[in-house]
Amino acid sequence: MDIDAWVWWLIGAVGLGIPLVLTAMPEFGMLSVGAIAGAVTAALGFGVVAQVIVFAVVSVALIAVVRPIAARHRDGRPQLATGVDALKGRQAVVLERVDGNGGRIKLAGEVWSARTLDTGQIFEPGQQVDVVEIDGATAVVM
Questions:
Q1: Residue 4: phi, psi to the nearest 5?
Q2: Are 133 and 113 in contact, with CB atoms under 8 Å apart?
Q3: What is the three-class DSSP state of 89?
Q4: In sequence order, which residues have a C-beta less than 8 Å from that of residue 10 and are 6 or more positions away?
Q5: What number of helices (H) and strands (E) belong to the chain?
Q6: Alpha carbons 65 and 15: distance in angstroms, whole number
Q7: Is the pLDDT score of 43 beyond 80?
Q8: Residues 44-93: tens digit of each pLDDT
Q9: Which three-class secondary structure state does DSSP give residue 136?
Q10: pTM score of the predicted model
Q11: 115: closest CA among 129, 131, 127, 98?
């Protein structure tokens, strides 16, 4: 039984698609697309050398062009702050006098213990403060 070259290329494309699914490495997908381009080249009647060149050119081009674009999109995404990290930088209202030793604020609808960043600073009830960090269960404000 004689199998056409384009069928072998498609088998190779599927073979490269399996590790793509198992490892989630997009490079395998790009190589798989290159193998499909090789199959198309074979189906059009070009020789083995042309098929390999098309496979290599398409695969390398995809890796050289798509990977940097994907990396920029992955790195450019803003990180979602959750938990206490989401509270940093927010404003709060002083409920009880806040100084370097302690006090109470209303932050994100909840009452928090608080202390000032600068120990000499004092905030009276009703004043707005900015949360600099969260130290355990205490908001550090200024």
A1: -65, 155
A2: no
A3: coil
A4: 35, 36, 39
A5: 3, 5
A6: 23
A7: yes
A8: 999 999 999 999 999 999 999 998 888 888 777 667 778 888 889 899 99
A9: coil
A10: 0.54
A11: 98
